[in-house]
Design brief:
244 residues; alpha/beta; eight-stranded parallel β-sheet; two-stranded antiparallel sheet; 37% helix; 18% strand; globular
Length: 244
């Protein structure tokens, strides 16, 4: 039997600005990664999103990012390991749950072992029972395992991969997969075969524990609904990482 966690990045509204369809996406996923107020979100939005997730009976995760509201955490910032540790600690404390870094913090931690070690240490120092989510085959997953953390390797349904198994930069026109049928077929192959074709056609090995579908695009709701339906039709069980 195949099993996958279906997660979405939520709680990204801020003050008077509304982003995403959280109330409609939450019933379709098994885990919610909730922004912690640095790249998106605010205390009121966080509390509201946590409440909706609890009511739906899904897992709740902290989604810490760079302190970059204007850039939505997707711009490069050069933090020292000590600074990264501090920002990670601060945001996990705001939402004590499983942890998945956001945006460029996530991407850098996939390849920078020193940064990854600092983030993993921050998670462990808050609570060694927390689940650390990172890109499949990434330095963040490796460093988390070294510290004895439970880790979850993540696959992105709507993103292309490089030959090295990293996410294609959002600055590249090929970063996003816009063909829904193609995206769903890739998801199924990743779960069943443990592999995905890179943007150049190279076979990349990966074994995802959790599948991410972004919640901030106009088509997000329809895409999440379709993926859930397709997985269930193929007898792939959707459950949060660590759930019985």
């Amino acid at each position: 039997m195949y099993r996958i966690d279906l997660n979405s990045d939520l709680g990204e509204s801020f003050g008077r600005y509304t982003l995403g369809l959280d109330d409609q996406i939450i019933p379709l996923v098994s885990s919610a990664n909730i922004a912690c107020g640095q790249h998106a979100g605010d205390p009121v939005v966080m509390r509201k999103t946590v409440g909706m997730a609890k009511d739906a009976g899904i897992a709740i995760g902290a989604h810490p990012g760079y302190p970059d509201l204007q850039g939505f955490g997707r711009r490069d910032m050069h933090l020292s390991p000590d600074e990264a540790y501090s920002y990670m600690l601060y945001q996990i404390g705001a939402l004590h749950a499983r942890v998945k870094p956001h945006g460029q913090l996530y991407n850098h931690a996939a390849i920078d072992s020193e940064l990854a070690a600092a983030l993993a240490q921050a998670v462990r120092d808050v609570d060694p029972k927390l689940v650390l989510v990172g890109l499949a085959n990434s330095a963040l997953v490796d460093e988390g395992r070294k510290l004895g953390l439970v880790t979850a390797e993540e696959f992105f349904a709507d993103r292309n991969y490089t030959d090295e198994g990293r996410l294609v930069s959002r600055n590249d026109p090929a970063a996003l997969i816009r063909d829904e049928e193609h995206a769903i077929e890739r998801v199924k192959n990743a779960i069943r075969e443990g592999a995905v074709l890179s943007v150049t056609g190279k076979l990349v090995d990966l074994h995802p524990d959790t599948l991410c579908v972004h919640g901030d695009s106009p088509s997000a709701l329809a895409f999440v609904s379709r993926i859930r339906q397709e997985l269930e039709q193929d007898d792939i069980v959707i459950k949060a990482v660590g759930a019985e």
